[in-house]
Amino acid sequence: MRVLITGANGQLGYELQRTVPQGIELLCADREKLDITSQDSVNSYFDTHKPEAVINAAAYTAVDKAETDTEAAFAVNANGAAFLAEACSKHDISMIQVSTDFVFDGTQSTPYKVDDTTNPVSIYGESKLEGENRVLEILKSKAVVIRTAWVYSSHGNNFVKSMLRLMQEKNQLGIVSDQMGSPTSANTLAVCCWQALNKLQTSNCQLPSIFHWTNAGVASWYDFAVAIQEEALSLGVLKKSIPLKPILTSAYPTPAKRPAYSVLDKQFTYDALKLPAQHWRAALKETMRELS
User: Fold this and answer.
1) Of 1.10.10.10, 3.40.50.720, 3.30.565.10, 3.40.50.1460, which CATH number belongs to 2-151+184-216+260-278?
2) Residues belonging to the active site
3) Which of 38, 111, 199, 262 could form a Cys-Cys staple with 181, CB 3.0–4.6 A?
């Protein structure tokens, strides 16, 4: 089976290539090879390369920039996803659409279930939610949306690598402590995507349209930073520790509002896709070993 991975140079695209199951022929496309914001580009790519399934890992993820770069965010996250879904519909193939915890407003105090009410509080969240809705409207039972959060990898730009750099450059750091979520290894997210695609291709019964996937457990960004420093010190990635100070979101204003609580309920995903839970600390340790 030929599977198209969009956003192939990103951290999820990288991990999808590393975890590809046997029997899969990859079509890896970055923005130079495939401009998903152009319907003509998408249609031409499908006609030429004839993918048999798609995992859309391409996304506009500059959360703060999206507040003023609205057109570009929607072009990728909503229109681009829809153009891919329309091409999949035309060729009668399945699609995995990767989405985000930012579709929720973060006002709950219990993990968000897949059918909880969405209410994004940022342009980024709005654009990703529109992408979800358009993909499911176009493809119906031939699409699955996987929402995730706080993704990092040994590849690309992310919180883990930013923290490691800052911990080497700074004498101390203030880290937001009142936003709660679940750090997620892109490697485990990739495995979830492949498992969902396999189920979508082989299941005799219709799969649910939306799944949630992050690593298990809950942390603040401060907790995450503390763990990053501890793991880095133990593996020799960092030579010395620096003081880490918990701060409130109000002390670190950003253009885009973040959900204060964006923990996703994964129990349904564990059961339906037969995936084991892995605590975020264990997943972080594996990534830190790679970086060491």
Assistant:
1) 3.40.50.720
2) 124
3) 262
